[in-house]
Amino acid sequence: MPERRSDPTVRMRLLEGAARLLAEEGPAALTLRRVATEADTSTMGVYTHFGSMGDLADAVVTEGFARLSAQLAEVPRTDDAITDLAGLGRAYLINARQNPHLYAVMFGTASLGKYRPADQRERGRYTFEEIVQAAARAVDQGRLRPGDPLAIASQLWTAMHGYVMVDISRYFGKGGVEKVLVPMIVNLLSGLGADPDAALASIRAFEATDTSYR
Fold it and tell me: Staple partner for 64: which of 72, 104, 106, 165, CB 3.0–4.6 Å?
């Protein structure tokens, strides 16, 4: 029986299977037969849901950022911008832990070879806006010294991305958040003008409501 285009479960299995192949074996593994096998579907099913391997790889990148955006959108906003930044960092980490293969593909750490979208570097910038807005609020609240919110958010994201890459490789174990991530973020915020004790208190305020990412 032909695959139905409207079947979301098959499409999702194809996306996750393709992400796994790209992250673990590279673009040479992204063949019609391998993808179909990974998704437990027919080779015709691949073309039913995606026009080509290039379209499939492109959809993997799009799906990765869509999941990140959804995770960030779930972070409740408070009156404390530093607490909100902690929440966004937690969401970023949780998303990467839950979707390590998609994460590798969407940020280019997994080689896409000829399948790399021409606009990949711009594809997910809308998700970054959440961090920029929180950084702007931190400046407005006097928690950080005056500065360009985009530059501040870029520094925070770069530090977070570096931690995540090591975290999802399981180098830190369960103590990584407390022993590495929290001190790193406090130090960075302090360099951006935050009072270190107040910054830590804001992070702890978030942790008091959610410790699931530890």
Answer: 106
pLDDT confidence of residue 2: 47
Nearest alpha carbon to residue 81 among 182, 194, 180, 163: 194
Tell me the C-alpha distance between 214 and 193, whole Å.
27
Distance separating alpha carbons of residues 149 and 163, to the nearest angstrom: 21
Spatial contact of 20 and 101, defined as CB atoms under 8 Å apart: yes
Residue identified by tokens 């399981």 is 170
Give one DSSP letter per residue of 155-209, joined into a string. Answer: HHHHHHHHHHHHHTTTSSGGGHIIIIIHHHHHHHHHHTT--HHHHHHHHHHHHTT
| pTM of this structure | 0.88
Tell me the pLDDT tens digit for each residue of 118-175: 766 677 888 999 999 999 999 999 999 999 999 999 999 999 999 999 999 888 888 8
- Tokens read off for 13: 């299995």
- Size (the chain), residues: 214
